[in-house]
Amino acid sequence: MHATTQRSTAPQSHDVPAGADPRDIGRLLVRCSDQPGIVAAISRFLFERGANIVASAQYTTDPSGGEFLLRAVIHLPSLMAERNDLEGAFQKEIAGAFGMTWYLAPAAERKRVALMASKYDHCALDLLWRGQREEIPMNIGLVISNHPDLAEPVRSFGVPFVHIPINKDIRAEAEEHQLDLLRGNFDLVVLARYMQILSGHFLDEVGCPVINIHHSFLPAFAGADPYARAKERGVKLIGATAHYATVDLDEGPIIEQDIVRASHNDTASDLERRGADVERTVLARAVDWHCNDRVARLPKSTVVF
């Protein structure tokens, strides 16, 4: 259910009550077919093991045969020491009976994050800056790029930078090199304006979720050069979309979107500059929510608690 690798302690989050030890706070995320008794069974299980539910949110896609989603924040003294036993008992007594997909994430653990970028620097550097300021509970351990342009600014944050060139003739070899660096070492990969299409093999093998930022308000203007196309159409709004990457290009479950106003006076360059601002904030929110275990993923959508 979880990696055994030791991780750094995260800064205080909204899930940690004032005065509480983050090591005693856990986030339980549950997904299963909706049916009577789920909340009662979970609550009883936690109560019997001395855990207190300090926050809880739930959602069902349909009360008759839909998907049930729950996020609960629990307080349990010595959670870190008792985690393995608690997870084993929950799987045996609750999850198995209800057919749940679930995990328990201690609030004291940061997510291990790798970034992939190309020549554009605004999203990658923004996340590095937020990570350095501990605005998001993550440890960025690596930046991979198919261009060398970002090497110096990335390394100024003390983060390793690896340049792996890629083109159609060496794509398979390049992806294997990337996978050698990523597989088993990270909890999340973020495509911070990585301008290459990932293969299905890569997504199957990387072993963790992949979040992408699309420089357009999906589904409109999907694909390349959206700002020039937006200018041609005289749009009054431009935006950005953060979503989980899947084999279907730009069609993965959407996590966050936002927009800014545009006018006929804006040039394509104006739109691109203003679009970069919204790309940064949308991607940062999506990564923050993921790292705080707030995103419940469905096949074609997400629920953000």
Principal-axis shape: globular
Task: Please report the number of helical segments.
Answer: 8
Strand order of the largest sheet: 7-6-5-8-9-10-11
Taken as a percent bin, the fraction of beta residues is: 25-35%
Q: Evaluate the radius of gyration.
A: 21 Å
Which sheet architecture does the biggest sheet show? 7 strands, mixed
Spans of at least 5 consecutive residues with low confidence: 1-12
Q: What portion of residues is helical?
A: 25-40%
Structural class from helices and strands? Answer: alpha/beta
Task: Report on this structure.
- The chain is of the alpha/beta class and 305 residues long.
- The chain has 2 domains: 22-106, Alpha-Beta Plaits (2-Layer Sandwich); 111-304, Formyl transferase, N-terminal domain (Rossmann fold, 3-Layer(aba) Sandwich), CATH 3.40.50.
- It has helices spanning 38-48, 79-98, 122-132, 151-155, 171-182, 200-205, 226-233, 268-291; strands at 25-33, 52-60, 67-75, 101-106, 111-117, 138-145, 161-163, 188-191, 210-214, 237-244, 254-261, 295-297, 302-304.
- The strands form 3 sheets. The protein has a 7-stranded mixed β-sheet. Strands 2-3-1-4 form a 4-stranded antiparallel β-sheet, covered by helices on one side. A two-stranded antiparallel sheet has the order 12-13.
- It starts with 24 loop residues before the first strand and ends with a strand.
- Residues 1-12 have low confidence and may be disordered.
